[in-house]
Specification:
0% strand; globular; mainly alpha
């Protein structure tokens, strides 16, 4: 039986041959510079690999935190408009997550294919995958924009929100939907850069759009100076303007190809079956995973809404900080994904495994420390987001204490899920997420939160159980070693 390294090398040749036949430009493309992860040193030591993990992870962690700051800033500003506005924006963001699931899928597929081809020394094929990703993302964003704009109020009513929440949420969601083209462009462009090993550029762009979002949203929400008082609509326009600027900057960077992958030139833009099929094989399970998660979170929101507007507003405040805690997990997950894809492309599965365990251990420490901070500091950090309501503050702080126990456990599941995706094994994270969300979190949240009457803290016990199940399933899969032969990367695609 051939070794995994030999098998990966042979299959890499098949993959390269299939895609190169469809590329119109045969001019040589330089190998990306080492500082962006395009070259794996032959004499790499474990210490060097640990350094690579942290170099990829910390910008992703900061970027994700900065992404969260966009929502935190919006939440803090909207909170001053009252509980209905706060809950309406929260419901709208939850609904948007269903559409964003498709964008996440395309971005994940893009990162995996770019990383695999960069590791194999084939940046030309990586560029083809990148261009096809933009095409797929454009189609998806048009669909999401039309549905969100036309049916915003109907979607919010389905969750069971009261009339005041529907009125505020629909105004916000209708405008947000129009900007999905900029959001998906940012997702895909950032995915290309991460796949090539550059996580710093998306971080810096995200930092910039934070300032733009606040600078545009603040006067439009409250009608400062010559600007009209738009309320939640002003918050939506602030998000759109910020994402527009971010999309333009990221596309310009990828177009120039200074990070190892260039989308310039006419070749590769015409829709092509082979790279799109690979993108779908990897991205579709990721999309289903995201839909399972976001759809489950929507049903979870229904459970919370049934507890009242104050309870839902409290949950939105706690949710902001919970998402911030997950972002170190996403950062180390990105590092594991990128290094796994590059390592398998280079025929080095042992390097992929070492990188994954380094990332997992580091993530446990990060999320564990944040959990301790939330447990003890919760009553104070939620004050700016509680709309001056002591009931919202108390409920949210108690919810954070419950959530803090799940954070080290979630670190395992998040990081190993990234490793599995980097290997092209996206079906397993789809299964583990869907099973734990729909058969563990939601039933447990309803039982503890509604049936037993424990409210938001009780509902969040379901999240803790979900974390245990998801992490256990992903750990079992990774230790089995089956990720080294995932079909979406190793099998030659059908024509």
């Amino acid at each position: 039986m051939a070794s995994p390294a030999i098998s990966a090398t042979e299959n890499n040749r098949e993959m390269s041959t299939d895609i190169v036949r469809d590329v119109e430009n045969d001019a040589p493309t330089p190998v990306p510079p080492r500082r962006f992860g395009g070259v794996i040193p032959d004499n790499e030591t474990p210490a060097m690999l640990r350094g690579a993990v942290f170099r990829l992870a910390w910008p992703s962690i900061v970027e994700n935190m900065l992404q969260s700051l966009v929502q935190i800033a919006t939440t803090a500003m909207v909170a001053r408009l009252g509980a209905a506005a706060l809950a309406g924006v929260g419901v709208s963001n939850q609904i948007m997550m269903v559409g964003i699931s498709t964008f996440f899928a395309v971005s994940t597929g893009t990162t995996v294919l770019v990383a695999y081809n960069i590791g194999a020394g084939n940046p030309r094929e990586a560029a083809v995958a990148a261009k096809q990703s933009y095409f797929v993302g454009l189609i998806l964003s048009i669909i999401v924009a039309i549905l969100g704009f036309l049916f915003s109020a109907q979607f919010i009513r389905l969750i069971g929100a009261d009339a005041s929440v529907v009125a505020e949420g629909a105004k916000f969601l209708r405008i947000e939907a129009l900007g999905t083209i900029f959001l998906v462009t940012m997702f895909i462009s950032s995915g290309i850069l991460r796949g090539s090993g550059d996580t710093r550029t998306p971080m810096l762009v995200t930092l910039s759009i934070n300032f733009i979002n606040i600078g545009v949203s603040l006067p439009l929400i409250f009608g400062l100076g010559p600007f009209p008082h738009l309320g939640v609509v002003g918050a939506a326009w602030g998000n759109i303007v910020a994402r527009f600027v971010g999309a333009i900057v990221l596309v310009a960077i990828v177009w120039r190809g200074r990070r190892g992958v260039s989308i310039s030139g006419r070749a590769g833009w015409r829709p092509r079956w082979i790279p799109i099929k690979k993108l779908v094989d990897i991205g579709l399970p990721s999309m289903m995973e995201s839909l399972f998660r976001s759809g489950g979170m929507t049903i979870f929101a229904v459970v919370i809404v049934s507890l009242g507007t104050t309870a839902y507003a409290s949950q939105q405040v706690a949710n902001v900080f919970w998402q911030m805690t997950l972002f170190p997990g996403f950062g180390f997950s990105t590092a594991a994904l990128t290094l796994t894809g590059q390592s398998l492309g280079a025929g080095k599965p042992e390097r992929a495994a070492l990188a994954s365990w380094v990332a997992t251990r580091a993530c446990i420490v990060w999320m564990g420390v944040m959990g301790v901070a939330y447990f003890f500091l919760g009553p104070w950090i939620v004050i700016p987001f509680s709309a001056g309501d002591p009931q919202i503050r108390d409920i949210a702080s108690h919810a954070l204490k419950v959530l803090s126990f799940s954070m080290p456990i979630q670190a395992v599941g998040l990081t190993l899920a990234g490793s599995l995706r980097g290997a092209g094994d996206t079906r397993w994270p789809m299964f583990s997420t869907g099973f734990s969300m729909w058969f563990v979190r939601i039933p447990a949240a309803y039982f503890f939160g509604v049936v037993l009457g424990w409210g938001i803290p009780g509902a969040y016990l379901g999240l803790i159980l979900d974390a245990f199940v998801t992490s256990g399933l992903n750990l079992w899969r990774y230790r089995s070693g089956r990720w080294q032969t995932a079909r979406s990367l190793t099998a030659a695609p059908a024509r």
